[in-house]
């Protein structure tokens, strides 16, 4: 177990290094300079800023400097936000995105397991058919479309009741989180529903299920203890990447609902060619994704004692 853990951690470090390297050279391959968009800037000021951000040095020197600082946990400075480090932006904004992502993954996980189990129980009957149609819609339609439709629906809902049932945008209370979290988790919920359904149908006629039934085990106990517990394992496998995917995939949803998360800064950084914020957030989210995948791999053996990590 220890050998496997160290091996996975080493693979994770290599993956993060690759992400950082590709991101660095991709940013520097873009034409122009991130400071060129600044209007009314004299050559002296531009030269001083180039020196401040290290843009006057050869590219390989910038790369090694950036990698060395990244190892120390320093993602550098923002090119557009005066005297603001990327670390402070991540520290300030990521908790908002994390709260939204956690709530979304709760909706997605509970909904995926519930609807997937329901479709397996009512296979080829109207609940199964209806849920499968909704699953196809949830997988096919992008989250920003659901976000726009959801906002429009909230406007009509609030107008119908003559009061604010749920806020259309903003942040600060639990009511602000519900709609964007549900919309953010819809795609993952649909995917987990389909995965849970397939897993349930695979084990419904397994030998240990038939044995439990022949011993007179109550149907509810067979379902909860044997079917559900074994069928949920594939869902747990993809849960780690799904958490990271939901958290990083909330950029557009955050902007639509006016949520002050990290996505707001990332989208703005792309528009302004803020290399520091783009590279810092990309590497941060890449490391977060790698960490979640490793964590799920290690937890898998704890959930299913039959699994032996080697």
Summarize model confidence as the mean pLDDT: 80
Relative strand content:
under 5%
Low-confidence stretches: none
Shape: flat
Task: State the share of residues found in helices, binned by percent.
Answer: over 70%
Sheet of most strands: none
Q: Roughly how many Å is the radius of gyration?
A: 24 Å
Q: For the terminal residues, how far apart are their CA atoms?
A: 7 Å
Would you count the extended β strands for me? 0
Structural class: mainly alpha
H/E topology pattern: HHHHHHHHHHHHH
Number of helices: 13
Note the main attributes of this structure.
mainly alpha; single chain; 13 helices; 310 residues; 0% strand; 76% helix
Folded structure, characterized:
The radius of gyration is 24 Å and the shape is flat. By secondary structure, it is mainly α. The protein has helices spanning 2-29, 43-53, 59-71, 86-121, 126-140, 143-161, 174-203, 207-214, 219-231, 233-248, 251-256, 262-272, 275-303. 76% of the residues lie in helices and 0% in strands. It has 13 helices and no strands.
Secondary structure: elements and pairs:
Blueprint: H1 2-29, H2 43-53, H3 59-71, H4 86-121, H5 126-140, H6 143-161, H7 174-203, H8 207-214, H9 219-231, H10 233-248, H11 251-256, H12 262-272, H13 275-303
Helix pairs in contact: 1-13, 4-5, 4-7, 4-10, 4-13, 5-7, 6-7, 7-9, 7-10, 8-9, 10-13, 12-13
């Amino acid at each position: 177990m220890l050998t496997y853990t160290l091996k996975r951690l080493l693979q994770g470090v290599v993956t993060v290094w690759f992400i950082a390297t590709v991101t660095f050279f991709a940013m520097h391959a873009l034409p122009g300079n991130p400071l060129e968009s600044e209007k009314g800037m004299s050559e002296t000021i531009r030269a001083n800023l180039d020196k401040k951000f290290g843009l006057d040095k050869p590219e390989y020197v910038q790369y090694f400097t950036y990698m060395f600082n990244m190892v120390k946990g320093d993602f550098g400075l923002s090119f557009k936000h005066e005297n603001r480090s990327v670390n402070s932006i991540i520290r300030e904004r990521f908790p908002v995105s994390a709260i939204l992502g956690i709530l979304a993954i709760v909706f997605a996980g509970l909904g995926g397991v519930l609807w997937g189990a329901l479709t397996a129980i009512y296979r080829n009957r109207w609940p199964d058919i209806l849920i499968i149609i909704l699953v196809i819609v949830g997988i096919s339609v992008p989250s920003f479309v659901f976000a726009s439709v959801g906002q429009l629906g909230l406007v009509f809902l609030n107008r119908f009741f003559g009061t604010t049932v749920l806020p259309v945008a903003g942040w600060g209370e639990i009511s602000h989180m519900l709609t964007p979290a549900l919309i953010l988790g819809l795609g993952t919920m649909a995917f987990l529903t389909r995965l849970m359904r397939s897993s349930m149908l695979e084990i419904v006629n397994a030998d240990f299920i038939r044995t439990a039934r022949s011993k007179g085990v109550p149907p509810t106990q067979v379902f909860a203890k044997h079917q559900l517990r074994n069928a949920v394992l594939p869902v747990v496998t993809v849960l780690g990447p799904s958490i990271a995917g939901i958290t990083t995939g909330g950029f557009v949803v955050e902007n639509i609902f006016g949520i002050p998360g990290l996505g707001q800064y990332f989208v703005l950084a792309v528009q302004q060619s803020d290399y520091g914020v783009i590279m810092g957030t990309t590497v941060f989210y890449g490391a977060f994704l790698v960490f979640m995948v490793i964590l799920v791999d290690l937890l898998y053996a704890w959930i299913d004692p039959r699994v032996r990590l080697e």
